[in-house]
Fold this protein.
Amino acid sequence: MSNRDFSESLIGYEKEDDQLWLWDDIPELKMEIGYKIKKLLHLEKSAFQEISIVETASYGRMLVLDGTPQITEKDGFIYNEMISHIALTTHPKPLTAGMIGGGDCGPAREALKYGSVETIDVVEIDPLVVSACRTWMTPYESNDRIRLFYEDGARWIKKQQRQYDVLLVDRSDPYGPATALYTAGFYRDVHQALKDDGIAVFQSGSPFYSDSFKKTVNQLRKLFPIVHTYTTTIPSFPGGIWTFTIASKRWSPLQADLNRLQWENAKYMNPDIFRASFQLPNYIRDMLK
């Protein structure tokens, strides 16, 4: 497919002076962010969404769903490490882990670094996302501890009762199929799916423009005795700064044994980053009051 056909067929792509750009529209900020595209690598339409993988000028390969960037080759390790290591270190002995989303299996690969973990169930609604990532993003190595389920995460979680020590919710923005992953009922289902000392981590968006951030924290505080937000910086994400929220039935990340942190082969995570990520600037503290 030519660049001309590409730009005319997919959401968010435009051709300007023979150069292809992907424009990520952020209506909350009344702005768009443009990513210069060098080459189309993969394009298909599934039953759920448009899937493309492109070579960008600044971030290497990028997974794009319905015109919205998801993860990039250059800075994806930051997201993968930050959504996984905090909870898996905080729990003293995680045996069963589950993940909603994360079709690229990046966080699941990080979870494999914890020897106590016996199984990691990855629930992805769209099998074509998984196959595209296996081919074009980080090479996939089969591992018996990773089990893939192609289901709607909001429906799947309802069937789980006291099953998991750790749950990672790698959800997309609250649009389309991901809307159900932001409801009060979903948070209750996650709580029920955790064991009595279980921990969940939610991608909770940007504090600059995402209403889902405050709503997520408020909903989790109604269910869990321990709720903490932590931050990181992901250059390819709009606004740069990003939040995750950890909700725990027993174990506090502020008292975690960092000797358990598997950071020796990490590119971003280390004990200092673990501690510092929970130190919130005043404007975020004010938002959470």
The chain has nine helices and 13 strands. The domain at 3-72 is CATH 2.30.140.10 (Spermidine Synthase; Chain: A, domain 2). The first strand starts at residue 13 and ends at 16. The CA atoms of residues 134 and 140 lie 5 Å apart.
